[in-house]
Amino acid sequence: MExxxxxxxxxxxxxxxxxxxxxxxxxxxxxxxxxTFYTWLDRIFTNKTxxxxxxxxxxxxTGNEYYIKKDYENxxxxxxxxxxxxxxxxxxxxxxxxxKSAVLFEIEDxxxxxxxxxxxxxxxxxxxIKLKLLIxxxxxxxxxxxxxxxxNAVNACEELIRFLHLKEFEREKYLNKLKVVSKNLKTSNQxxxxxxxxxxxxxxxxxxxxxxxxxxxxTKERGRHVITEKKLNVGDVLFIEKAFxxxxxLLDESDTEIKLSKCFYCLSDALKVxxxxxxxxxxxxxxxxxxSESWKECHQWECLGMQTNFWQEIGVGFPAFRAFLxxxxxxxxxxxxxxxxxxxxxxxxxxxxxxFNALVTNFCHMENITKILIIATAIVCYLEKxxxxxxxxxxxxxxxxxxxxxxxxxxxxxxHIAQFICNANVIHHLSSNFLNNxxxxxxxxxxxxxxxxxxxxxxxxxxxxISLYFEKDVAIVKAVETVEAGGEIFNCYGxxxxxxxxxxxxxxxxxxxxxxxxxxxxxxxxxxIENYDTFSCKNxxxxxxxxxxxxxxxxxxxxQASKLVHVGEIEEKVSELYSKPNPSEKYLLACLKRLNDDLxxxxxxxxxxxAILTEYYTEKGDIKELFxxxxxxxxxxxxxxxxxxxxxxxxxxxxxxxxxSCLEKKEFGDIQQYRKEIEDLSQMVDDMxxxxxxxxxxxxxxxxxIEFAVGALRFVLQISLKNQ
Length: 724
Ligand SMILES: [Zn+2]
Ligand SMILES: [Zn+2]
Ligand SMILES: [Zn+2]
Ligand SMILES: [Zn+2]
Fold this sequence. Notes:
- The chain is mainly α and about 725 residues long.
- Among the domains are: about 1-40 and about 245-425, no CATH class; about 525-565, no CATH class; about 565-720, Tetratricopeptide repeat domain (Serine Threonine Protein Phosphatase 5, Tetratricopeptide repeat, Alpha Horseshoe).
- The protein contains 25 helices and 15 strands.
- The chain has helices at about 1-5, 20-45, 55-70, 70-85, 90-105, 110-120, 125-145, 145-165, 170-180, 290-305, 310-315, 315-330, 355, 370-385, 390-395, 400-425, 455, 500-515, 565-580, 585-600, 605-620, 625-640, 645-665, 675-695, 705-720; strands spanning about 215-220, 225-230, 235-240, 245-250, 275, 285, 425-430, 445-450, 460, 465-470, 475-480, 490, 545-550, 550-555, 560-565.
- The strands form six sheets. A three-stranded antiparallel beta sheet has the order 3-11-10, with no helix packed on it. The protein has a three-stranded antiparallel beta sheet with strand order 4-8-7. Strands 13-14-15 form a three-stranded antiparallel beta sheet, with no helix packed on it.
- Helix 3 packs antiparallel against helix 4 (about 70-85) and helix 20 runs antiparallel to helix 21 (about 605-620).
- It is globular and about 85 Å long.
- The protein starts with a helix and ends with a helix.
- Bound molecules: zinc ion (ZN) (4 copies).
- One zinc ion binds next to loops.
């Protein structure tokens, strides 16, 4: 797109007119500029990436290198890449599955291993590979304790061995392998799937995907927004919404964060077993059904563009195009302009297009809509020149001329691109449970860009009172604060006060969403996280807020003004604390005292010093002190970020691990001293579960290990108390 951007740099078309009409605007732009776009397309289409067995073999080799290093995640990933490049049904194609099955066997995911083997066996492969796979198949059944299938697999192996006329010693080798009976039968290592939560007080009749307590309201000042009719408690489930439309984030060789591991049609995990698109090299699916549905619905028009960088180049145009396709069959239906959003239904499970089509575009606020016109024109030119999209659809949709659909589709694309810019969500998935290892840190990765019309109605706050996370293509929204009946529900459009200062947030809100934020944080300077880093009032201990640059402060609580003379000295102390390596206990406690005398208790310095102290006492094995400072650390974070902030949950997870490992090292005879601590630890685990459950799609198995460990400690404690 770079050349086009340069070309149109001085080409500014404003959306700020009394009656913005995307049809007229697009038509004018398209007729004047389409030639340039055709040239641009010609250029990018000279460089196509096609199926290529040589490349597939190279990628498989890289996968093998990871396999040898026991890096199973990357080996699976590279076998997937290899599969994408392999010519369908070729030997290279079959080998990718064969190699995947080896990894899956290694990580004891026998179900998926069997699936890989069966796919591989359905293609042509050499007899030696076939024999290897049949033996692996038998071993899978043995591990899964499926006797009858195991017997059948063994028979198939023996038959093949007979057929191959192997030398005696080879025959023996294989037959012996089959005779080994596994001593410890294992169950399959597939992590159980976690069911979706249940909406508070059932689903609404009027508001699709929302809890029945939620209502849409529309006022002049606040526009459309969402309120609750009942009091909400932390954890109440407010929305469970399937994406109206989404597009996976496309692989970019320079970005290692994006991995090809999700089904392009349903966003299921497809790293272990997947099938590739038969034509392009960038798309995988979880099964054949997803592949054929996807082809019918959208991929038949996308696939050619996937052979170049076309869809990557047009960015948000890709998901907008997918939404556009959903409007085709209903002739891009709209809600009537006087639609009453308060009284009439919002959302229609079978045809949600007209509700998606009612989302704001903000055209009338945009200084410059050239970029949107460029993206829409690029898509239209691509469809016109490289696909039979218009030929196929114009008569089917009763357009008189093909050109009518060409222009109209461009206008709809413009609108949808604008709607995506101000309403779309980046769909994140949790990546931690890879290989079913709940011990890994929680890590989320962006997987797609999607649109959720019902959720989009919520207004923004820099401090949202909900959490939002995703499972496949479903968004789940929960309350993270109590909200009184009649209160408004706020999402955060990205300008979170924990990560951006007020100026940055205002720029984001105005620049992308065209409003001035007046949320609780933006209208209360003392709540800004950076203003917690201050001194406490000598009069009442309240928060001092800087009133002028020369160290004049005013207390938020009692309004008393202070002129702090020793500010420099404390600040020096603080910076010393941050830079001193291996500080002694005495030094740390002296520091803490000094900070306690002068700093506001929500100051980030306390988080820092408490963290150092917990580390110090973990190393020393001093459980009482470790507990004391862990609690102070958590309480300080809660007071800064909110009781149910995700960071608090993650911190708890780390602290629980430290405390547990300390307790575990204690002698049996000493355990009674820590009765209170062990009880508190169970409480901490419950706390952590509750908080993390608000932000991630977690099941009990994610906490099994730590709960078991804490349970074991309690058990030991009870025995020791009985023995007394
Ligand atoms: Zn799928
Ligand atoms: Zn394709
Ligand atoms: Zn705000
Ligand atoms: Zn005060």
